[in-house]
Amino acid sequence: MSKTKAKICGLKRPEDIGIVNRLLPEYIGFVFWDKSRRYVTPDLALSLKKDLDPRIKAVGVFVDAEAEEVSDLLNRGIIDIAQLHGHEDEEYIGRLRRLTDKPIIRAFQIRSEETAEDTLSDAEKCSADFVLIDSGMGSGKVFDWRLLKGFPRDFFLAGGLDAENVKEAVAMTGAFAVDVSSNVETDGVKDEKKVEDFIAATRN
Fold this sequence. Notes:
Layout: E1 5-9, H1 14-23, E2 27-31, H2 42-50, E3 57-62, H3 67-75, E4 81-84, H4 90-99, E5 104-109, H5 113-125, E6 130-134, E7 155-157, H6 166-173, E8 177-180, E9 185-186, E10 189-190, H7 192-203
Parallel strand pairs: 1-2, 1-8, 2-3, 3-4, 4-5, 5-6, 6-7, 7-8
Antiparallel strand pairs: 9-10
Helix pairs in contact: 1-7, 3-4
């Protein structure tokens, strides 16, 4: 079984790039949603990406952005993968596919146990390259990972993960990758020790 990969999301400072270049998670995330406190402009993302170790894939996080805006950032190499967190449907994904050949991650939120089955059914059928399963957009809350037992496709797992619980999460779900943002921060900025501990726990 291949090792679960780590994604450190919400990078916005040159210091953040220095941290991940030393620790080499497989993915990092730039947030292009202007309501997020981790929002970065395309120009800032371009500047940060230039210094990013090429072994790390940069994921752009979008919420209901125009497909042309997303494809432009992909085709210019500012990001390598698009992660869609809004109301983007199959028609939107199809439009994005016509504009770029880069990979797409579509996020699905487990809001309650009652709706989980329908949500996971939609995720299973989604035409994106990967799906991300979360408890809510940046909620920082854990959902019942047992709901993912037997889920038949590769997925990113997010929502309340940290260095203490990620090992259990991986063991229970077999996630392709785990995604963290706020739980590797101190006072709103990325904390190198927390990032290091999270990646180590993921890989062990």
